[in-house]
Specification:
single chain; 190 residues; mainly alpha; 11 helices; 71% helix
């Protein structure tokens, strides 16, 4: 990648960062393209060279938010307890090393529950299925006697909501201590 390409990628990332912060603070509907351009220290016209619309910027951020859960499902570890512990370790590491990742948790919640969505956005949000995709792993842990018995979908929901809640609290106050990954897995254990 040449210097010009690196500069272009850096500007794109600056726009995404500014957009993410504004969408989280103000919501999608209340955020104007001019607000994003100002926060990114560029003209509105230049912003449109990177993203043809506010909607396209929002969709790009949703893609980033969706890629996290998708990448977790690629963890090679198939021992259920180790899988969940590694997934949480990666999330907590991301929260501390990439502070904007906490805002992605908030953006995804807003996109699911509060923001008006285009058909494309609705399709994208259907890809966030970590809760359902983890059911077979929880059932495996149950059959091994490692995880508590009960509805595997409800256990997955409880686990992921705890992770989501911690991420959202950390997004609001980065001075909060983060729990150990094993504490989350204890939610599932017998």
């Amino acid at each position: 990648m040449g210097v010009r390409d690196e500069q272009k990628e850096q500007r794109r990332n600056e726009i995404m960062k500014a957009g993410l912060e504004l969408f989280v603070q103000k919501g999608y509907a209340a955020t104007k393209v001019t607000d994003i351009a100002k926060a990114a220290n560029m003209s509105t016209g230049l912003l449109f060279h990177y993203f043809e619309s506010k909607e396209k910027l929002y969709e790009a951020l949703l893609e980033v938010g969706i890629s996290g859960p998708k990448s977790m499902m690629q963890i090679e570890e198939r021992d259920p307890a180790k899988f969940f512990e590694e997934a949480v370790r990666q999330i907590l590491e991301s929260l501390t090393e990439h502070p904007l990742s906490a805002n992605l948790f908030i953006l995804m919640i807003q996109a699911i529950f509060f923001e008006p969505q285009t058909e494309r956005m609705k399709e994208m949000m259907q890809q966030t299925v970590a809760i359902e995709e983890c059911v077979p792993l929880i059932q495996l842990g149950q059959s091994m006697g490692e995880f508590k018995q009960g509805d595997a979908l409800a256990l997955s929901l409880t686990f992921w909501c705890a992770v989501q809640g911690v991420a959202m609290a950390f997004a609001r106050d980065r001075s909060l201590p983060l729990p150990e990954p094993s504490w989350f897995v204890d939610i599932l254990r017998e």
